[in-house]
Amino acid sequence: MASIGQIVEQTTGGEVLSRARARAALVPDCMVEARRIANTVIAGWHGRRKRGIGENFWQFRPYAEGESLAAIDWRRSARDDHTYVRDREWEAAHTVWLWADLSPSMMYKSTFGAVSKESRALVLMLALAEILARSGERIGCPGIMEPVSARNAAERLATAIMHAPQTAGLPETGMIRGHSDIVLIGDFLDDADRIMERITPLARRGLRGHVVEIADPAEETFPYSGRTEFTDPETGEKLVSGRAETVREDYRRAYLSRRETLGESLRRLGWSFAFHRTDHLASEALVTVHGYLSGLPAGGINGGTRT
Amino acid sequence: MSAFAFANPAILIGLLALPVIWWLLRLTPPRPKSEVFPPLRILASVLKREETPANSPWWLTLLRMALAAAIILAIANPVINPRANSLNGSGPLVLLVDNSWATAPDWDRRVQTAEALIADAEDAGVPVSVTFTADATHDAVPGSAAAAREKLAAAAPKPLVPDRERAAAAVTEAINGTRPGTVVVLSDGVANASDETALDALASLSPAELRVIEGDGARTMALTEATNNADAMSVTATRLATGMPQSMAVNALDPQGRALASGTLDFAASAATATAEISAPFELRNDFARLAVADLATAGSVRLLDDGFRRRRVALISGDSGSDFQPLLQPLYYISRALQPYADLIEPTTADLSVSIPQILEGNPSAIVMADVGRLPADVYEPLQQWISRGGTLIRFAGPRLAAAPADDPLVPVILRQGERALGGAMSWSEPQAMADFPATGPFAGLPRADDITVNRQVLAEPTPDLADRTWASLADGTPLVTTREQEAGRIVLFHTSAEATWSNMPLSGTFVEMLRRLVQMARAGGAASATADTAAALPPFRLLNADGTLTTETGIARPITIAAGATPVASFDHPPGLYGTEDGFSAVNLLAPGTELQPFNASLDGVNVVREGLIGGEAQSLRPLLFALAFLFIVLDSLVVLFMNGAFSRLPRLSRSAAAGLAVLAGLLLVAHPGEGLAQDAQPGDDVIMEHLDTTHLAYVVTGEAEVDQLSEQGLQGLTQFLTYRTTLEPGAPVGVDIATDELAFYPIIYWPISANAPMPSQAAISRIDAYMRNGGTVLFDTQDQYSGLHSSGMTTPNGERLQAILGNIDIPPLEPTPEDHVLARSFYLLNDFPGRYAGSPLWVEARQEAAQTGSELSSSGDGVTPLLITANDLAGAWAVDAQGTPVLPTVPSDAMQREFAYRAGVNIMMYMLTGNYKADQVHVPALLERLGQ
């Protein structure tokens, strides 16, 4: 029987260049795919639901002493004895940090999934970048690209990813300042505690986070049986199970409880958590994440988890 | 003797490889499937609890080790009870091999044993002398081993008893003083009369060793006797091994080898003989050709039956030619009824006894029954006497003629007094006599006394000193009722009363049947022995038994056998067991004489050390097949374990469920696809037409081939059909034109046949079909349509009349008459006096009524009193004919509306008569019935 899972475009440890080249070859396809699914999400300039610098009318308010006279809306003020100031809705550009885990474990693709986890993660990230760039947001990628506000931010992100060195684990987040959003896309197969250790400081600094877990169906359903040797693609560790079907239930329980724990911890931080399987459509995850970004309460859609 | 040895001990070195195999097996566990799995840490946390063996489990290794060991041991070929014979002395090896009937089942083992001995002799370099005891000639001169093997290969078991004495003598002569090394008697285990002499002769050669090898004899069994008793055939068998109780089936086979009946031989423990009863009806027992022990194939286990067990041929002769009117007064009536089930009866072709008796004697019957024959023609006495002398049985019954015959009749067993004795009656004091008990010696011994028989009249025997000995049955007052006399090989039996019920009621009783049956059974089956009276001829071999107990046509060197009367033939080399004679009549020669008992061969001899041992074929058992089977079993087990460990069966339940569901769906689909296939296809093309004709009565007319006539016929029948529908409950279907040459006629109660001289004459076959139709109850209405029927009116014959005569000339028609006034035809619906059509005046001819004539014509009887044919010249169809509008087509002559109405009424009456038959005849008797009821 052919093995269920495989490492897509597997590269060994030192061959960073070829690995990068492979990823670079992958990115344009992901870009096209990202464009396609980004079009399915209707988005636009979104207001901040409060007054500020912007173009759209927000409210009339009474004139206060000390304000610039130029601020008075004379047309409105002429209608009664008060003077009014026209407030505009605040439409400040927001910084959204996007990050996708591109470690070797993401290269995994089983016969049940449509694409590898990495491919799906890239597609999601670039699609988000495309949508957010259209909305005028500043797009950044920790460790790879400084935040830029440009209509071609997605292309620039893609270019940056192509040239980026291989990273592992969660990114260095020292450069992230202020209240910005961060979207983390990965498989998050480490212990929930370890992940939270990294994330909690970010939340403390006031970052709003959105975590998308990409999973392969084989990882979730564990369709293995018989005597099977399992290999960790990152560490190369091997594990032999005499009769794999016997541990299926236990494994699934452990796998799902890990996800539950992670999701629960994130929600406690006020972060949103969504997970996505590679045999589902990428646009599903995109809509979910975009919903979170657009200000829906965390855990708003389907309680924050999609099945 | 070592009980266990290896044929190839060198292979056992292979066992040294077992540790290596063990090491290899431990080293290489089954290779797992390799899977990349990113969430390995999660899996690891789960898998910690499970033991993950790096090696195969110890029991699997053990299984594989056992597998390897089994294969190595199997190649080494261990043998239990290996043969360890060795020859003694330097003299030649003398083999005395029994090839008798009892060796047939294990002949191959015997040959193996002999070959092993010959091989030993070859190794030792001594010559070999092989002698077969059941052969006719012995060549015991010691020769080379190869020659001995050739002789062994050519030998085969013979269906004979061994003659060891002669064989031993031949050995003694051939050895010619040389001191033999080992003398081996390969015995069949059955004792023989001359065994001691034979062993003495062998011992006198002073061999280095005298060895007796014999089989276990468990299957040595022989049928020694078969007797046909009254209600069953009793078979006696004897066996050699008397230790255990044993039960064997005996089958009775017919000449084609089919089993007809079977019985069971139950040997008690330590009993050498047993008897089985094969119960079968007498007729079935007549067909028994041989008896065979089931599952045994030796000449001894088969008992051939010959004509002695067959149905007898019995000729019946009566003095009274008799009349057929009173069969119950015929003397032969009761005899033939009694003997019919048990014997083939021959009746004389003529009443002239001087012709019929020589004819009967040519047929060579077993017995001749003469009922009340007083005096025979003078020239038949001589051949009849000869026939009796050769073994015929003459059974005579008394009667008025015999009582009146002169006393010097040579064909009566006793001297008879003139006249008969009447018991009871108006002028007699004596009472009719009952029968006494049957004497214990005669053929009637064992019959219960017949209390229901009384004898009114008998012929009396003159008392003679030996009268009592020759009396087989007597009356209560001691007068003989059945007497007998042997005449050379034959016998004359006389019943002193008559064969019909006038002199006694004996012929009416069951005892009569049983007495006759026993007498006939006693008669010699083949009739008189042969035509040449003085010496019994030599019978050529017809079918011979081979050693396997099957009959063959190869008669080979068998010589004709001469069987003296009453003697049981003995099988010998010249006369092997089988059937001798011709297909018409044969005698069976069986291997063993009745009463033979098989005794174990007694090989102990004073002063000589005799070594006894068994055959080698069975005892030396190779364990190789067993070990290979074991190894194969291990391989299967191992494969299953490996498959199980790799999870091949984890999906099995689901698979089997889906397979079962698939099968169910498939079966359902098949059922749906072929809903009617389960029923037999017995529908024939044309059934719908037949059913249509059967559902509705149709009027039918014969298509003459002349268009005008046919059209008129159809229109006429259409008109009648309409009239019938209006006036009666009969609603016929549309008229049908039939082609009498081809169409099925049986559907129509009546067929209207307009005779036209211009139409083509129907073929002979068509006319015979019409004849058959009339015989089967149909009716044909012939209509010459010319006003003047040609019947009985010579001089006025019309062309149509001539044609009718031509047609009827080929048909077996009954006498005809014009319809009488009180005929059913005139009463069946309307009351009619005549039957006009378009013309009036011609009578309607019907079959003449037969009540007075008493001559039982076939035609009238089958038709339930309905006349098979009607003949008229009135052109009925012309009067009935209507066109599509319902108006008449032709005018009546003279033109009279009432005549047409009467024509219709005549048609209705004819149809009613056809359909109801003589039921309506009761109407004729209504006055008489009313008169009777009035009383």
UniProtKB/TrEMBL annotation, chain A:
**Top-level taxon of the source organism:** Bacteria
Q: InterPro entries from the xrefs? A: DUF58
| Residue span(s) of domain DUF58 | 60-260
Question: Pfam families attached here?
Answer: DUF58
PANTHER family attached to this UniProt entry: BLL2464 PROTEIN (PTHR33608:SF6)
Tell me what this protein is called.
Answer: DUF58 domain-containing protein
From TrEMBL, chain B:
Annotated DUF4159 domain ranges read 698-915
Q: Which domain of life is it from?
A: Bacteria
List the Pfam families: BatA (PF07584), DUF4159 (PF13709)
Organism, per UniProt?
Pseudorhizobium pelagicum
**Sorted UniProt keywords:** Membrane, Transmembrane, Transmembrane helix
Q: What is this protein called?
A: RNA-binding protein
User: Cross-referenced Gene3D superfamilies, in alphabetical order?
Assistant: 3.40.50.880, Domain of unknown function DUF4159 (3.40.50.12140)
**Database matches in CDD domains:** A4_beta-galactosidase_middle_domain
Residue ranges crossing the lipid bilayer per the database entry: 6-25, 58-80, 626-646, 658-676
Q: Which residues form the Aerotolerance regulator N-terminal domain?
A: 1-78
Report whether Nucleus shows up as a keyword of the record.
Answer: no
